[in-house]
Amino acid sequence: MCEAAIATLNVPLPPVDLARHYDFERRQLGGVWFAVDGEAAERIGAASRLSVEDTSAVPRLIAMLGQDRTTPAAAQLAGTDLREATTTESQRVENLGRFTEADLACQLAAQQALVRIGAAAIPLLMSALSADSERRRLGALKSLAQMGPAAESAMPTLRHVEKRDRSPLVRQKTSEAIEKIKPNRW
Fold it and tell me: Is residue 36 part of a domain?
């Protein structure tokens, strides 16, 4: 068990102030390079250290699937004409893009960790399919799809989501996940 990694995941993320200067580093996950801030880098590192034994981290990883620090912060930019943006406004826009990347990297790290944990994560991933957050639902779908046939126990829930989710994107991604979990059998 990686208790230090789990402890890192349990620390709440601080709010984002788009006007502040942040240092971002480049981090590669799944063959893609991301700009990540220090807090995101710590979470990505913690998630990467988790293994099949670290089932107590599953609820926190599920929460990371929907990580979104930018939507609340984007309100700071509402009504800004970017063609006439000041240096401060330009910094805010740049930070918004970088924090969006960092959140995506955290979501990907959470997906990878959930796949490594495997079968023990499936019940909570199935519950996440009814979350309010579309990001969380999509992240849960990606994790289940990556598990492939090992996630077969999720098929009844996936069939329900495929027919009834309010998001067309989630319904489409559910169909794709079903195909990866149980191709040509349902």
Answer: yes
Sign of CA dihedral 133, 134, 138, 144: positive
Give the helix, strand, coil percentages of the chain, each rounded to 5.
Answer: 70, 5, 25
pLDDT tens string 66-93: 999 988 877 766 666 656 656 677 788 8
> What span, in angstroms and rounded, lies between the C-alpha atoms of 69 and 92?
13
Cα distances (Å, whole numbers) of residue 168 to 68, 73, 130, 162, 177: 21, 26, 14, 9, 14
Is the CB of residue 77 less than 8 Å from the CB of residue 93?
yes
- Yes or no: say if 57 and 5 are a contact pair by the CB < 8 Å rule: yes
Q: What is the pLDDT of residues 13-69, one digit of tens each?
A: 888 888 888 999 999 998 999 999 999 999 999 999 999 999 999 999 999 999 999
Quick check: 43 and 57 in contact, CB under 8 A? no
Total of domains in the chain: 1
How much is the pTM? 0.89
Residue 112 lies in a domain: yes
Name the residue range of residue 89's domain.
3-13+22-181
